[in-house]
């Protein structure tokens, strides 16, 4: 008998001898929407703070207790986003604006159902290119109205493909006011789950030049302290196919320096051009969607988080370059988490940092200026007006830095330049945004000069002569990531890839990488040159969770001269870099390939346009890219060309997306529960009632038996 059997046997015996206790009955579940949305301390606290004009207070509280409308934005490159916007307006918004919602039945009226409200899509005026929208689409409307249900299915499908991002309206603001340019080095300090990071990546790829849009000079470093949330962030970022993002896992308050190679050849810490500092907060601005905040709220939540928020923002300013911009934001209404943080940063910076007025960057957005005066309250709702009045029991919670600025320095700080967004103004959540610009080095901050390079060389030479004990390695939490191996000059697989796809000469082969050094490479990734330098310099001391976009996948096919096929996951990056294996196709060609998902019987080449057939004739078996350029949409897909057939490597939801853009039929991949219910009812109504037939047959049988009995009696 082995050790494993003994352990299992012992556990079994223990279970048999264990006293069986009666199970406790679980309390009945409470509907999440039925939670009490009321907190008198909340109202008392914010009335005293005067965050809302007195005449607007009732409207503010009423709005805070209502459900938050759904908001989303169209993502990806501008061409694709505008095409999808056109489809959404034409297919859904315009017909729905004319729709008369169905009336309630008597049963629904008796059950207390509310009538379906007409759909009113609202375009957020302050978001560029009309790509952000807000909808009053409720579950009740979706359940009762077929047209609303179809719109909901459209939103779900496009969200799964990454072409639509569900995001709270006010959450879209911080990346906008960062003013990102394609050459910027950007740091997102608390990035997960990644909606704002996705915006930063989109802005980084906003160049009009095809190559620069695919491979920008700048980078996005997306960091989060939670290891598991970093993988959620990775999933979100992969949809955007960016070779300029690197995801790290560090405590933002103690973010380590990320080094790079300077133009003079020396190595030093990166100073970022843009930093997003969306810090953890009490979240009382999210009460319209997170209803449990109502019961958990108390006046000291903000003071408890103040120290953490300050450390993160302070570290951000240290990593910011002179002339750079840092955006500090929270989804909190509390001045202790907002203006008190900004006040302390400005005082400590001593003129090296200033607030920026960004009202002109948000046309159409209603907001109020930041507070210049506020009060403190403890858990017992006792008002504390000055440092001298802090109760002894609260000395570990409150300090002098939490109090508002004195009148003599209030004008100098200009806290009114902060942006406060109140829910009742535009039917949103509550939010706070402050934009800081670094005009000169912080007090005590080291400024790198060319002379420092010589000093560093001397120190490096001296250090090599000293014997030092190696530092103890810290135990890292979470999964251990495989290292990154960039292609070297003698890379075995590169000549075959280069000759087969015709990689552009200006593209450095050393920007391709894999996660495997020995044996066959399964996937090949690509990054820009700055990401490569960061990985090379920092891989030993920075915890890198993910980087690079997958562009090639191993496909050991004997009929193809190249062992790697194109990956749809990285088509937006790789296709601008290759000069071969690309053919132009017609709209009808794409529709044929997208509507055929049979892996055994792909579309035959002879079914395609004659010009497409001619292009295929000149190509051998292997991976291929299909390019279609219409009047209002450009589509690029990857696939495979066989001897007699072609196929597109496109997932189901992506097929629906591309068919929508082409204005083709998508019914093959979509199910309509309303239509299915109608078909079922029609089928049932056309068939005879079997129960009636059975009764008739039974009655006839009984009559026959009765007749037989009578005849035998006679």
UniProtKB/TrEMBL annotation:
EC number assigned by the record: 2.1.1.203
GO terms, molecular function: tRNA (cytidine-5-)-methyltransferase activity; tRNA binding
InterPro entries for the chain: MeTrfase_RsmB-F_NOP2_cat, MeTrfase_RsmB-F_NOP2_dom, Pre-PUA_NSUN2, PUA_NSUN2, RCMT, RCMT_NCL1, RsmB/NOL1/NOP2-like_CS, SAM-dependent_MTases_sf
Biased composition (Basic and acidic residues): 676-686
Family the entry assigns: Belongs to the class I-like SAM-binding methyltransferase superfamily. RsmB/NOP family.
Major localisation: nucleus
Full protein name: tRNA (cytosine(34)-C(5))-methyltransferase
Residues binding S-adenosyl-L-methionine, per UniProt: 190-196, 224, 251, 278
Low complexity composition-biased segments: 691-700
SAM-dependent MTase RsmB/NOP-type domain residues: 60-439
Example of a GO cellular component annotation carried by this entry: nucleus
Comp. bias regions, Basic residues: 1-10
Protein's cellular compartments: Nucleus
Residues covered by region (Disordered): 1-30, 676-714
Classification via PROSITE patterns: NOL1_NOP2_SUN, SAM_MT_RSMB_NOP
Top-level EC class as recorded in UniProt: transferase
Active site per database record: 331 (nucleophile)
Transmembrane segments: none
GO annotation terms (biological process): tRNA methylation
Organism field: Cherax quadricarinatus
UniProt KW keywords: Methyltransferase, Nucleus, RNA-binding, S-adenosyl-L-methionine, Transferase, tRNA processing, tRNA-binding
């Amino acid at each position: 008998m082995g050790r494993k059997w003994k352990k299992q046997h012992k556990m079994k015996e223990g279970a048999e001898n264990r006293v069986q206790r009666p199970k406790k009955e679980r309390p009945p579940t409470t509907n999440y929407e039925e939670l009490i949305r009321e907190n008198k301390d909340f109202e008392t606290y914010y009335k005293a703070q005067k965050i809302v004009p007195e005449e607007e207070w009732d409207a503010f509280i009423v709005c805070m207790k209502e459900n938050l409308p759904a908001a989303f934005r169209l993502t990806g490159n501008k061409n694709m986003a505008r095409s999808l916007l056109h489809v959404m307006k034409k297919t859904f918004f315009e017909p729905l604006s004319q729709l008369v919602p169905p009336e309630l039945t008597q049963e629904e009226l008796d059950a207390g159902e509310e009538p379906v409200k007409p759909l009113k899509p609202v375009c957020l005026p302050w978001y560029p290119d009309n790509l952000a929208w807000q909808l009053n689409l409720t579950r009740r409307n979706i359940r009762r109205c077929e047209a609303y249900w179809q719109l909901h299915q459209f939103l779900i499908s496009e969200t799964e493909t990454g072409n639509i991002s569900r995001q709270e309206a006010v959450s879209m603001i911080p990346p906008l006011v960062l003013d990102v340019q394609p050459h910027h080095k950007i740091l997102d300090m608390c990035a997960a789950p990644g909606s704002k990071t996705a915006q930063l990546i989109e802005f980084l790829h906003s160049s009009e030049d095809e190559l620069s849009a695919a491979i920008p000079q700048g980078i996005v470093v997306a960091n989060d302290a939670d290891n598991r949330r970093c993988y959620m962030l990775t999933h979100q970022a992969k949809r955007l196919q960016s070779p300029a993002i690197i995801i790290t896992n560090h405590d933002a308050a103690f973010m380590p320096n990320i080094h790079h190679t300077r133009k003079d050849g020396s190595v030093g810490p990166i100073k970022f051009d843009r930093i997003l500092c969306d810090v953890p907060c009490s979240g009382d601005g999210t009460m319209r969607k997170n209803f449990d905040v109502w019961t958990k709220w108390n006046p000291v939540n903000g003071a408890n988080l103040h120290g953490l928020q300050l450390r993160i923002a302070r570290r951000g300013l240290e990593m910011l370059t002179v002339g750079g911009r840092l955006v500090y934001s929270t989804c909190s209404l509390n001045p202790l988490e907002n203006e008190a943080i900004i006040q302390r940063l400005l005082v400590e910076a001593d003129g090296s940092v200033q607030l920026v007025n960004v009202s002109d960057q948000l046309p159409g957005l209603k907001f109020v200026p930041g507070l210049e005066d506020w009060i403190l309250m403890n858990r017992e709702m006792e008002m504390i007006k000055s440092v001298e009045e802090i109760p002894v029991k609260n000395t570990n919670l409150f300090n002098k830095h939490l109090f508002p600025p004195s009148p003599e320095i209030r004008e100098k700080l200009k806290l009114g330049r902060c942006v406060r967004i109140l829910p009742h103004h535009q039917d949103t959540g509550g939010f706070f945004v402050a934009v800081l610009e670094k005009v000169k080095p912080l007090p005590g901050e080291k400024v790198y000069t060319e002379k420092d390079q010589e000093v560093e060389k001397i120190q490096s030479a001296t250090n090599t002569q000293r014997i030092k004990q190696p530092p103890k390695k810290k135990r890292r939490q979470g999964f251990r990531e495989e290292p990154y191996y960039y292609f070297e000059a003698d890379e075995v697989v590169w000549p075959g890839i280069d000759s087969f796809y015709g990689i552009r000469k200006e593209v450095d082969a050393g920007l391709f990488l894999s996660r495997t050094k020995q044996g066959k490479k399964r996937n090949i990734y690509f990054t820009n040159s700055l990401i490569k330098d960061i990985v090379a310099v920092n891989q030993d001391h920075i915890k890198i969770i993910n980087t690079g976009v997958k562009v090639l996948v191993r496909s050991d096919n004997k009929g193809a001269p190249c062992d790697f096929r194109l990956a749809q996951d990285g088509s937006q990056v790789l296709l601008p870099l290759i000069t071969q294996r690309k053919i132009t196709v017609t709209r009808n060609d794409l529709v044929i390939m997208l509507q055929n998902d049979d892996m055994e019987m792909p579309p035959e080449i002879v079914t395609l346009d004659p010009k497409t057939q001619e292009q295929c004739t000149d190509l051998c078996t292997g991976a291929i890219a299909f390019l279609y350029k219409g009047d209002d949409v450009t589509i690029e897909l990857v696939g495979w060309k066989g001897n007699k057939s072609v196929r597109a490597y496109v997932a189901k939801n992506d097929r629906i997306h591309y068919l929508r853009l082409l204005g083709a039929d998508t019914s093959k991949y979509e199910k309509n529960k309303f239509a299915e219910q109608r078909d079922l009812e029609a089928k049932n109504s056309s068939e005879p009632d079997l129960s009636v037939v059975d009764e008739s047959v039974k009655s006839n049988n009984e009559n026959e038996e009765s007749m037989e009995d009578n005849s035998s009696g006679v």
